[in-house]
Amino acid sequence: MNLFNSELNNKIIRQLQAARQNFEFDQAGIKKRLLSAMDSPQSHPLGYSELPTRFTFIVLAGVATTILAATATFLIAAESAPGDSLFAVNKFREQLILSLPLAPQKRIEVTADIVQSRFEAVDRIDEQDMRQTGQLMLKRLETVNESRASFQQAVDAISLKQTDLEQTGQNQAATALDSVLSNLTQMADKRAEVINKWVQRSDDQSERDEIRSSLKLFEQTRDQARQQLNRRYKQTPTE
Amino acid sequence: MVEEAQIQQLVAKAKQQDRVAFAQIYDTFAQQLYNFLLGKLAHKETAEDLLQTVFLKAWSNLNKYEPRANAKFSTWLFQIANFTLIDHWRTRKPTVEINEIENLVQFAQKPKLYEEYAYLSQALQTLPLAYQTVLDLRFRQDLSVEEAAHIMNKSRVSIRVLQHRAIRALRKKLGDKAI
């Protein structure tokens, strides 16, 4: 059924594209009226002080709404995953926590927790019925992208911290971070297999291509983590 | 086809009150924007009025426009056109008079093509504005998901969801004609 629907969708898209054409209109007349209206002082591109625009109002209203609803919403949104309606709020909450002056070790812990929650979201989606529609495919895509982004953030943070610790001779602390990175890499291996399975099962070519391309980036991040671990293992003195 | 670099040069001049430069910008994009507006309004005079409004807003707000990497100037114009359309849509009568929906074949540059796909235009007209807009931007204007997202002020994923729903809704409207 999905294959049939996909074919129909593509047929409709082709019809939309085939029906494209230009329509006649009074191009010169409008230009004349436009240039005349541009002479009005209120339409001057410089030095025109406007009343608050619709866009400004929307932004201000949005900020006010966010502040008012923030506390309760953060609590409700804490469990939401990529693709959920409150995920953006959850993500904002996470970034807010990361922007606090945390101790470096704590920051890495928080980052690793975020990665874990993203990977768990991958698992939850995998449990859902694969025959469900494009909405689930889009949720999968967003989950892959968010997983990669948070994983990359964690790998970069850990790599940077380990370099700092090595340079200041704090080798034990640097070694402690190896296990964090190693755990994340192993978790990433499992999720890469799951995501690859989604690619194989999808019957929508464009979604398949998108997930495949996101998976490639995900695997690059995982390989970067592995390279960091290999570098550390090579230079750590053995007794 | 005018290159984006040339457009940006015109924009830079127009920002310095160069009306000739702005008139060239109008000449470059007027047809495309008119097609976009007419597709939703199905009324020539209203589309022409809104087209003038769009360019007037562009002229008035040029000082706020900042070129961005990977974003064309036309995307900004389409954004203005989209919001102008939404504002107009909110103020229009809930039921449009029959004589306000014109038979656009008389204005089509390829009347036969228009008649061949008239069923498609009629079905599109019955969809919500957001559905019409995403289908127009993606498949008539041939814009990328990223450009459509910027114009409609949504995320890329939201555009994909909207596109998926719009096609499904159109398919339902078309019924047998979709096959």
Describe this protein's structure:
Chain A: This is DUF5667 domain-containing protein. Chain A: Keywords: Membrane, Transmembrane, Transmembrane helix. Chain A is mostly helical and 239 residues long. Chain A is built from eight helices and no strands. Chain A has a domain at 104-239: Up-down Bundle (A middle domain of Talin 1). In chain A, helix 6 (134-167) packs antiparallel against helix 7 (171-201) and helix 7 packs antiparallel against helix 8 (205-235). Chain B is mainly α and 179 residues long. Chain B has two domains: 1-102, RNA polymerase sigma factor, region 2, helix turn helix motif (Rna Polymerase Sigma Factor, Chain: A, Orthogonal Bundle), CATH 1.10.1740.10; 104-179, Winged helix-like DNA-binding domain superfamily/Winged helix DNA-binding domain (Arc Repressor Mutant, subunit A). Chain B has helices at 4-15, 19-41, 44-60, 73-91, 111-116, 118-125, 129-140, 145-152, 156-174. The longest helix of chain B is centred in the first third of the chain and has 23 residues, at 19-41. In chain B, helix 1 (4-15) packs across helix 2, helix 3 (44-60) crosses helix 4 and helix 4 (73-91) packs across helix 8. Classes of the chains: A mainly alpha (239), B mainly alpha (179). Chains A and B meet through helix 1, helix 2 and helix 6 of A and helix 2, helix 3, helix 5, helix 7 and helix 9 of B.
Mean pLDDT of chain B: 88
- Give the chain pair forming the largest contact, with residue counts: A-B, 42 and 53 residues
Structural class of chain B: mainly alpha
Largest sheet of chain A: none
- Oligomer kind: heterodimer
Enter the CATH topology name of the largest domain in chain B: Rna Polymerase Sigma Factor, Chain: A
Low-confidence stretches of chain A: 44-52
Distance between the termini of chain B: 35 Å
Q: What would CATH call the homologous superfamily of the largest domain in chain B?
A: RNA polymerase sigma factor, region 2, helix turn helix motif
Arithmetic mean of pLDDT of chain A: 79
Helix coverage percent of residues of chain A? Answer: over 70%
CATH class wording of the domain at 104-239 in chain A: Mainly Alpha
CATH top level of the largest domain in chain B is Mainly Alpha
Specify Rg of chain B, calculated over alpha carbons: 17 Å
How much beta of chain A, percentage-wise?
A: under 5%
Major sheet characteristics of chain B: none
- Structural class of the helices, strands and pairings of chain A? mainly alpha
